[in-house]
């Protein structure tokens, strides 16, 4: 049976590595939020971070709208050109936290076990 190695968790979802008998599947991260599962390479995850920031910037014009955070839906592109998501601003911010926290933990682990190791 496959196990997971949790990287980051927030109120919307979880990010983890799949573990096989040989160890983690290298350079692939599983993101699960809402009813969606996305399996990204580290580079795709970084691209997704950029696409999230673009979507937040593009949709910041609605700052005065009281319904923006929960009722309005915005397009969020993914690195998988076939898949775009429809999310609220609140969901978009939580996805941003999930992706940023995941990349931070991956970079920290890489540093601690790489160049930062004595």
How much of the sequence lies in strands comes to 25-35%
Q: How far is the first residue's CA from the last residue's CA?
A: 35 Å
Mean pLDDT: 87
Overall morphology? elongated
> Total number of helical segments?
2
Q: What kind of oligomer do you see? A: single chain
Sheet having the most strands: 5 strands, antiparallel
The beta-strand count equals: 7
Give helix and strand order, one letter per element, not per position: EEEEEHEEH
Protein traits:
118 residues; 5-stranded antiparallel beta sheet; two-stranded antiparallel sheet; 7 strands; elongated
Question: What do you see in this structure?
Answer:
The protein has 118 residues and is of the alpha+beta class. Helix content is 36%, strand content 31%. The protein has helices at 42-58, 89-113, and strands spanning 3-9, 13-20, 23-24, 28-33, 36-41, 74-77, 84-87. Strands 1, 2, 3, 4 and 5 form a 5-stranded antiparallel sheet that branches. Strands 6-7 form a two-stranded antiparallel ribbon. The longest helix is centred in the C-terminal third of the chain and has 25 residues, at 89-113. The radius of gyration is 16 Å and the shape is elongated. The protein starts with a strand and ends in a 5-residue tail after the last helix.
